[in-house]
Amino acid sequence: MPSNAREFPLPKRVVSRKKAALLWQKLAETYPDAQTELVYHSPFELLIAVMLSAQTTDVAVNQVTPALFARFPDVAALAKADVAEVDRLISRLGLHHAKSRHAVALSGLLLERHQGEVPQTRAELEALPGVGRKTASVVLSVAFEQAAFAVDTHVFRVARRLGFSQGKTPLEVERDVTRLLPPSQWRHAHHWLILHGRRICKAPTPKCPICPLQSLCPSAQTRMRPE
């Protein structure tokens, strides 16, 4: 994860379960309709979009996927695609050379192993080219409404600033956060933290003075305390 997660002092300890519950409640109230900002119309489109979003904004992905899916509207079409053509269509994205190869190879394996359908288990998803734990978690939680919690850059940063975790890796943060919430809340919590990270708790400089969580946030209290 990026080093900017520590550009101002983080809490010295995790928050109590009581304070964590208050923070989660406030996040839920602040972002009641939180959902993915990626545009998709099927589990397959979501899988491709999430894979493309690595080290790239959702806004940028949404700018290239309409043309990509118009040219290759389903698994069979993308599996037969020329990698160079896919690469041209997504060339504005970071890591586009690798992503174009993964998109074509992934589609071929969906046909070969899964009858063209997106699998609904983590192991099967993570066996696909370009699909890691975060991508699999997003697909499981968003497309199939399973209990999964994805940790991206925003989630990693915000979870640590709010004192939910002192984890040094995404997996450690995931384990800490999922201990604080019932499984039914995991997929919602992912979106709450992402939106909060995008709109308020930004890197490198969070908007603490206008943050609705300011009175509860241990990082904001440390940061705004007079010298």
Biggest β-sheet, characterized?
none
Mean pLDDT: 93
Oligomer: single chain
Query: So, CATH architecture of the largest domain?
Result: Orthogonal Bundle
Unreliable segments (pLDDT under 50, ≥5 consecutive)? 2-6
For CATH, the homologous superfamily of the largest domain is named as: Helix-hairpin-Helix base-excision DNA repair enzymes (C-terminal)
What structural category arises from helix and sheet content? mainly alpha
The backbone outline, from C-alpha atoms, is elongated
Count of DSSP helices? 12
Domain unit count = 2
CATH fold description of the largest domain: Endonuclease Iii, domain 2
The share of residues in extended strands comes to under 5%
Structural account:
The chain is elongated, with a radius of gyration of 19 Å. With 227 residues, it is mostly helical. The chain has two domains: 3-35 and 149-221, Helix-hairpin-Helix base-excision DNA repair enzymes (C-terminal) (Endonuclease Iii, domain 2); 43-143, Hypothetical protein, domain 2 (Endonuclease III, domain 1), CATH 1.10.340. The longest helix has 19 residues, at 96-114. It has helices spanning 17-30, 43-52, 58-71, 75-79, 83-89, 96-114, 122-126, 133-143, 153-161, 170-180, 183-199, 218-224.
